[in-house]
């Protein structure tokens, strides 16, 4: 049985339950990631993950309804990221400028959600057909969320194709850059090298969009 630090006497029962849930979530996720990297995603079973985490198999599926959720456990943060950047853009800042700034900050911070997941994790995804398909679906969902955010930001009519077209272009650049980070990581480059290369490439990629989207969705 896993032990935890003594609870603060002032902590409510509801707070203790939430803390326990977070600890269990992290415990299961950590063991799943270790097994996926050691054995491969496709070959690892839910039962093996449950045994490693010392929980029931049903507990695993309660916390992670799909096996893919165990490997990619920042899905909602990834899907909502671009849309949230649009919502939080500064006064006078265009959608393109906000997304450029946000991505370059993520590169500086070596943010895992931007693709800086390390060679073992990147290889796990690349070697798994299931996870590769799941990742493409997450990119699609992120683009849809971005289109909705752009439509709201520009008060576009429901039948206006402009937000969807802009999201396809902006999301496409992010998709390419994410793939580039993975590619360089799998080629043996360390995070600092990857950041230097991709940071410069990102500037060029976003500059290509400036003539058409430089003033679009300006706050």
From TrEMBL:
Region (Disordered): 1-22
Gene Ontology MF term list: DNA-binding transcription factor activity; transcription cis-regulatory region binding
Record carries keyword Transcription: yes
Superkingdom, taxonomy of origin: Bacteria
Keywords, ordered alphabetically: DNA-binding, Transcription, Transcription regulation
InterPro entries: Homeodomain-like_sf, HTH-type_TetR-like_transc_reg, HTH_TetR
PROSITE patterns named among the record's database cross-references: HTH_TETR_2
Stored Pfam families: TetR_N
Domain HTH tetR-type: 22-82
UniProt DNA-binding region: 45-64
Protein name, UniProt field: TetR/AcrR family transcriptional regulator
Organism of origin: Streptomyces mobaraensis
């Amino acid at each position: 049985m896993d032990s935890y630090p003594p609870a603060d006497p002032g902590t409510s029962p509801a707070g203790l339950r939430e803390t326990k849930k977070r600890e269990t979530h992290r415990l299961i996720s950590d063991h799943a990631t270790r097994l996926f990297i050691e054995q491969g995603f496709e070959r690892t079973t839910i039962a093996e993950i449950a045994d490693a985490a010392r929980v029931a198999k049903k507990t695993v599926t309660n916390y992670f309804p799909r096996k893919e959720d165990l490997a990619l456990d920042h899905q909602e943060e990834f899907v909502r990221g671009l849309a949230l950047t649009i919502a939080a853009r500064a006064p006078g800042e265009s959608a393109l400028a906000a997304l450029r700034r946000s991505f370059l900050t993520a590169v500086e911070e070596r943010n895992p959600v931007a693709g800086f997941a390390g060679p073992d994790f990147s290889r796990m995804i690349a070697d798994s057909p299931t996870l590769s398909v799941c990742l493409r679906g997450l990119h699609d969902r992120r683009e849809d969320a971005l289109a909705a955010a752009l439509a709201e930001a520009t008060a576009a009519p429901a039948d206006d194709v402009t937000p969807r077209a802009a999201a396809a272009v902006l999301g496409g650049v992010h998709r390419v850059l994410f793939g580039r980070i993975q590619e360089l990581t799998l080629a043996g480059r360390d995070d600092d090298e990857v950041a230097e290369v991709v940071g410069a490439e990102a500037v060029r990629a976003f500059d290509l969009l400036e003539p058409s989207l430089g003033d679009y969705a300006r706050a």
